């Protein structure tokens, strides 16, 4: 397996580097004969027939699910609920008349998610698994499968699979919306190609992210990730990455929620990573940054080109406003990676964690 890693010191670094290629592979894999993005006709029918989607997932996959909800609701107009698999059994929601259950799982083996699938099949509802592993348990047991085409992910901390999950969710929502006659004013294929280039630009400036990790996290005890709207969901993933591999206590928060408790934790020098990719909430999240800065925090603003301002620590390439998570997560992954390296942590095999958890 050292051979597969090639010249890379860690699988995680290799897998982060593969992300532009993964996006391009997904475009190819889901391109129909006419060059337009498409999904299997039966899956499209299942999506169109549903009056509500129930996304079930754990860990990083559940963070991708939160973004998938935005896609299906905003593009296709289909209501979506996102549930953590381990909790679903206790808090089974009242189901709509025609639910479709979507299981998002990189490995296709997560026991918490499988347990929900088994129960839903007993109830007789249709199921779709979105997974990176063809032939995996959840793929075999669900009615339908959409593949991520990300190639094997070895590092315990998920990177390219998360990005692939978001891209495939965007694609499925887009294709469903178009089939339903929704007037979408953008060409997803083109926008995803722009995303692939945007990710590459960030990957090519790794040294900047190494500097940020050193500046902000070398001696940090904790760190906060804040965002609003879709940036909030990416903040959750940024915090999870940092926790997983560097063991720094980290939390993701909605910018507006900080003042309702968490701001009490801000001390002199507390790192606060703020994502600013959504024009509609840029002013508000910048306001939150000012609030924490006034209390001594060390803010690191990561803004998208076009809505960036002087003093932002990192400007990421401009992409379609719905697709920003695909790009904004990449600096967070790299910052976590370098923070873990500074602390001499075992990046690919963090303590206490497993790549796929086959116990409930
Ligand atoms: C484990 C991994 C996480 C992953 C989660 C869900 O806890 O360490 O990185 O997000 O399982 O895995 P899945 O394969 O279902 O996406």
UniProtKB/TrEMBL annotation:
SIS domain ranges (all copies): 43-182, 212-350
Main localisation: cytoplasm
Sorted UniProt keywords: Aminotransferase, Cytoplasm, Glutamine amidotransferase, Repeat, Transferase
Keyword Cytoplasm on entry: yes
Gene Ontology, cellular component aspect: cytosol
GO molecular function list: carbohydrate derivative binding; glutamine-fructose-6-phosphate transaminase (isomerizing) activity
Domain of life the protein comes from: Bacteria
GO biological process: carbohydrate metabolic process; fructose 6-phosphate metabolic process; protein N-linked glycosylation; UDP-N-acetylglucosamine metabolic process
Catalysed reactions, as listed in the record: D-fructose 6-phosphate + L-glutamine = D-glucosamine 6-phosphate + L-glutamate
Name of the protein this chain belongs to: Glutamine--fructose-6-phosphate aminotransferase [isomerizing]
Gene: glmS
Full-sequence range covered: 241 to 600 of 600
């Amino acid at each position: 397996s050292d051979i597969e890693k090639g010249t890379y010191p860690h699988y995680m670094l290799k897998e982060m580097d593969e992300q532009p290629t993964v996006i391009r592979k997904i475009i190819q894999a889901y391109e129909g004969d006419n060059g337009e993005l498409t999904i299997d006709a039966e899956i499209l029918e299942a999506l169109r027939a549903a009056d509500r989607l129930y996304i079930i997932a754990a860990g990083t996959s559940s963070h991708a699910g939160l973004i998938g909800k935005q896609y299906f609701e905003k593009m296709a107009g289909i209501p979506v609920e996102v549930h953590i698999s381990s909790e679903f059994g206790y808090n089974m929601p009242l189901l709509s008349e025609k639910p479709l259950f979507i299981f998002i799982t990189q490995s296709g083996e997560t026991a918490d998610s499988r347990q929900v699938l088994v129960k839903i099949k007993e109830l007789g509802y249709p199921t779709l698994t979105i997974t990176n592993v063809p032939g995996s348990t959840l793929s075999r047991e669900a009615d339908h499968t959409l593949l991520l085409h990300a190639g094997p992910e070895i590092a315990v901390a998920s990177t390219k699979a998360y990005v692939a999950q978001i891209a495939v969710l965007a694609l499925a929502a887009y294709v469903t919306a178009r089939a339903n006659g929704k007037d979408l004013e953008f060409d997803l294929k083109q926008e995803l190609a722009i995303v692939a280039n945007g990710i590459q630009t960030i990957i090519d400036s790794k040294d900047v992210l190494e500097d940020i990790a050193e500046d902000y996290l070398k001696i940090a005890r904790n760190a906060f990730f804040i965002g609003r709207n879709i940036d909030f969901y990416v903040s959750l993933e940024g915090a999870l990455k940092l926790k997983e591999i560097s063991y720094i206590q980290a939390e993701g928060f909605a910018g507006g929620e900080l003042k309702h408790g968490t701001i009490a934790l801000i001390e002199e020098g507390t790192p606060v990573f703020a994502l600013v990719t959504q024009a509609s909430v840029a002013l508000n999240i910048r306001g939150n940054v000012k609030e924490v800065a006034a209390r001594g925090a060390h803010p690191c603003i990561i803004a998208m080109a076009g809505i960036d301002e002087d003093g932002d620590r990192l400007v990421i390439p401009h992409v379609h406003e719905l697709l920003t998570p695909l790009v904004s997560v990449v600096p967070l992954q790299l910052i976590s990676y370098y923070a873990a390296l500074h602390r001499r942590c075992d990046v690919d095999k963090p303590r206490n964690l497993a790549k796929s958890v086959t116990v409930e």
